[in-house]
Amino acid sequence: MNCKEAQRLLVPYINGDMEEKEEEQFVKHIRHCKECYEELEVYATVFAGIRQLNGAEEEIDYRTLVEDSLETSEEDMRDTYFLTTYTILMKAASTAVLFYMIVRWFF
Ligand SMILES: [Zn+2]
Q: What is the pTM of this model?
């Protein structure tokens, strides 16, 4: 992902309105690109400010706003990765058990 693409995704990211794969690439880019990181910081601050003006009760810590959100994204990715690995392993295990049972029945 390049800077242009990342910056197009700033608002969808802040609104949580993004495909999982896209979010993963976006966060990776933000982590390695100081310019986009700073851009995200500006957007996140502005959007958080608007939410508060609209009467949101949430406590906003502007210093950690972007870090918190990036960390949440990264945790979600780890969870997804774990879940995918787990699902694959479970499928492999049940196939093996099924195969074993068939072999037992027929031989
Ligand atoms: Zn960039």
A: 0.68
